[in-house]
Amino acid sequence: MKSMGCAPSKTAILRAGEALINADTTKEFDGISIEIQLRSKVQHSWATAVEVVDFFTNQTLKASQGQDEWLQFFKYAGAEFAKFEHRPVTEDLLEVDTASELQRLTNSLKVVD
């Protein structure tokens, strides 16, 4: 996914058998990777919102494809959430008034009707 305004959540890729699967069953899962995402509640809410908008607008924002206004909306929302959690925002947004841009897009997209 392209930059969505905040630093990415920590993701750990673990090979099956290295930490999660009992040694007796390792062969059954040999070569399969497992993705574990560590997110705060705010990060999880943001990711869920992206998926809900994807579904109802028939887009693939999660893959950085779709209407530019929606992509920008989630980029600015991600930045605001990052600020709320005292986390860094992406470099391209350091000089941007993300709150104002988010409000503009909220109105334009009729996010709250």
Runs with pLDDT <50, length 5+? 9-18
How are strands sequenced across the largest beta sheet? 1-2
Radius of gyration: 18 Å
Instruction: Describe the sheet with the most strands.
Output: 2 strands, antiparallel
Strand and helix order: EHEHHH
Number of helices: 4
The mean pLDDT is 81
| Strand residue percentage | 5-15%
Which structural class do you get from the secondary structure elements?
mainly alpha
Distance between the termini: 28 Å
Number of strands: 2
Features:
globular; 113 residues; 2 strands; two-stranded antiparallel sheet; mainly alpha; 11% strand
Account of the 3D structure:
With 113 residues, the protein is mainly alpha-helical. It is built from 4 helices and 2 strands, in the order βαβααα. A two-stranded antiparallel sheet has the order 1-2. Helix 2 runs antiparallel to helix 3 and helix 3 (68-84) packs across helix 4. The longest helix has 17 residues, at 41-57. The chain starts with 9 loop residues before the first strand and ends in a 5-residue tail after the last helix. Mean pLDDT is 81; it is low at 9-18.
Question: In a few lines, what is going on in this structure?
Answer:
With 113 residues, the protein is mainly alpha-helical. 43% of the residues lie in helices and 11% in strands.
Secondary structure topology:
Layout: E1 10-15, H1 26-29, E2 33-38, H2 41-57, H3 68-84, H4 98-108
Antiparallel strand pairs: 1-2
Helix pairs in contact: 2-3, 3-4
